[in-house]
Each structure stands twice: as structure tokens, then as C-alpha cells.
Amino acid sequence: MERSSTTSGGSTRREATRQKLYEAAVTLIAEQGFSATTVDEIAERAGVAKGTVYYNFASKSVLFEELLRHGVGLLTASLREAAERTAGAGGSKVDALDAMIRAGLVFIDRYPAFTQLYVAELWRTNRAWQSTLLVVRQQAVAVVEDVLREGVDNGEFSAEIDIPLTAAALVGMVLVAALDWQAFQPERSLDDVHSALSRLLQGRVSGRP
Questions:
Q1: Which keywords describe this protein according to UniProt (predicted)?
Q2: What does pTM read for this prediction?
Q3: What is the 3-state secondary structure (H, E, C) of the chain?
């Protein structure tokens, strides 16, 4: 069923407003922490009225939970697209994993503040959004698991691979390496970092000489 132009326009405007709020929230929370960040500050940074925040999100916690869903959803989509693009070009499963590593680095380079928050929140246990975080994390990891499973099925990878742990390790490798790159080795290019991780992938997963 097609929406009217008015509804579509309203939906587009609301999405644009929510995007502004996501960007304001992630920047402020990365700068000063969740507890210290107020709804007033988020509204001011986004350039909207305080009531606009509550119109779109019931509370600051809900805003942050939706921010996590939104950000990890973008990451998951970029990983999936990289894998599908590689498959469409006839690439191997190692090629697909390599493309996903690059897609992850590109995402983190574009959204460094979100990545810092995401990694930090993964290790907290007293947050209201912990269950949501675990769900969206698994969605991202599952994309890598699918490629590993297909590689095992077609004989490209060893059947002894622990698929869930290997997928989590690959995602973790990209997240931590990218944050280390940005914090301590910012002079290195994305291509340089990708090349280093690609060599690690080739040696640790494919077993190629």
C-alpha cells in the first residue's frame, strides 16, 4: 500500500530529525558519558526544541537504546552488503570476510564516536538496554557466521572451526584494531590498516601458505 506524499514527507522529516538526535546524542555521550548528558543538551546540540526529543523518544534511555539499534543496524547492513557483493562477483569466502573487514573499518572510520560507545557498553551489565545490545550484537556477528558456515560447507574452511567464536573474534578484531588505529596510530591510512588485518585473516582462517 502506497503512502500519500504528505505521509511520506512527514516520515522523511521525522527520520531526518531522529538522525540529528542520534548524532547529537552519540557525540555528547562519547564526550561526557551517558549519565552526565541531559536531554536539554541533546536538543541544543541537535538544534531542536526539548519537546522534539520527547516526541520522538519517550526518554533519554529509549533514545540511547534506539541509537544502538540504529548504529549496529547500519554496521550489519554494511557487512551483509560486502559479503553479497563479493559473492556476486564470484569471490571466495575468504574474499567475502576480507571485504567485510574493510566494510567494518569504513563504518568505524565514519562513526568513531558510536563505535567507542558501542564497545564500552558491551562490557557493562547494569544497563536497561543490555538485552537489546546483545540482540543487535548477535545480528552483526550472525552475518559473519553465515559466511564461515558456507565456507565450511563448501570445503574452503576447516570443519573444525568454531563458527560462533571465530565470527565473534573477527568482529572483535576489527572493532579493537580500528579503535587502536584511531586513538594511537591515526597517521596510518584505512588501506594500510585493512592490509594488515587482511594478512592476519589469510594466515589465521584460510591456512594458505
A1: DNA-binding, Transcription, Transcription regulation
A2: 0.84
A3: CCCCHHHHHHHHHHHHHHHHHHHHHHHHHHHHCCCCCCHHHHHHHHCCCHHHHHHHCCCHHHHHHHHHHHHHHHHHHHHHHHHHHHHHCCCCHHHHHHHHHHHHHHHHHHCHHHHHHHHHHHCCCCCCCHHHHHHHHHHHHHHHHHHHHHHHHCCCCCCCCCHHHHHHHHHHHHHHHHHHHHHHCCCCCHHHHHHHHHHHHHHHHHCCC
| Grid coordinates of 28 | 555528547
49 — phi, psi (to 5°)? Answer: -75, 155
d(CA 43, CA 167): 38
For residue 87, count other CB atoms closer than 10 A to its CB.
16
Q: What is the pLDDT of residues 23-52, one digit of tens each?
A: 999 989 888 888 899 999 999 999 999 999
